[in-house]
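Pilot study result, target chain (400 residues):
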Amino acid sequence: MPAIAQRLNNVSVSASVIMTQKARDLAAQGIKVIGLSSGEPDFATPAHAVEAAHAAALAGDTKYPPVDGTPALKAAIQRKFKRDNNLDYDPSQILVAGGGKQIIFNAIMATCDPGDEVVIPSPSWISYADIVKFSGAVPVAVNCPQNNGFKLRAEDLEAVITPKTKWLLLNFPNNPTGAACSRAEMAEIAKVMMRHPHVWIMTDDMYEHLIYDDFEFCTIAEVEPALYDRVLTVNGASKAYAMTGWRLGFCGGPKDLIKAVSNVNTQNSGGVATVVQAAGVAVLDGPQDLLKERAAIYKSRRDFVLDRLAEINGIQAHRPEGAFYIFPNIAGLIGKTTKGGRKIETDTDFVLGLVEEQHVVTVQGAAYGMSPFFRLSYATSMENLAEGCARIADYCNGMK
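Predicted structure:
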């Protein structure tokens, strides 16, 4: 058998994908599984988006699209950036791709050479570091400790930037912690970046509309306009509009960078499906009330789960400002043994035991670069959350 490319040697399969597959395998055996591992909204795609896609298909809008996005969608994205972020982008500064992940991948591939460094606040989404490794560049994790609300401290960022640094990759609200930066906190990060003009900044704003408790979202190019020409602002329809399966991501940035990313796009994509782009126009230009309505539901779920977790000895959970994840600390359970006889030495032991003994699926903190924690998604029904929390309590309280 021919050899597999060496570039895959350091690229792992996502732990969240593995744990979600465990849930499917157990469910296929007839076991009632509570899946709290998936970062996927449980709401339906807005009806007007589905109707727009259907109308586009019936109208014959089914040919090859422009690889960088249809004029109609790019215009809608232009309006979105102005409306939500006070950012002005010309259509030539906007790119559409098959989800935010493809944009991040293409941007790294377009700009990074072997040995370049990409600074990633940690804990972080699993795919960031693997995408960087795939390009031959080096991911550099910068610790965002729980005692700082899992946020990036300016002094920690300053300490890791070197002449080899090519990108700073920001994700607030964050996956897996739900942490979000205030305008003042983002301004401190911006001050550091102003001192390092050789570094690009990529901001993954996918959870922009999932914020709670009157928190105000901000993005770095808005906070510090002097950084505008160095920032790639990434977003998409997946989380806000419950369109994960539609695969629609977009970004705005300096024209030369967008041109380079688009060049990669032409080699690994034929463009996003025309009917998907029609749906994108509909949700971006359509009624936005559903965003706050759904955020209010997520907030009630967050508060419910936090209250349940607070009752469990050995677990300590930070209150997140956004997204739909909680990232509890399980230091108080390390060294204990479950009713099923599993010794909990790591957070991976914890989540595997939870699956096997209680059939609740979560993801270990180690997968995101921080232990001993685990990620719990509350993007599911209150019924599932109640049952899941009860099972987690039984699991933890049964440890000795």
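One observation from the pilot: The mean pLDDT is 96. A full batch analysis is planned for the follow-on phase.
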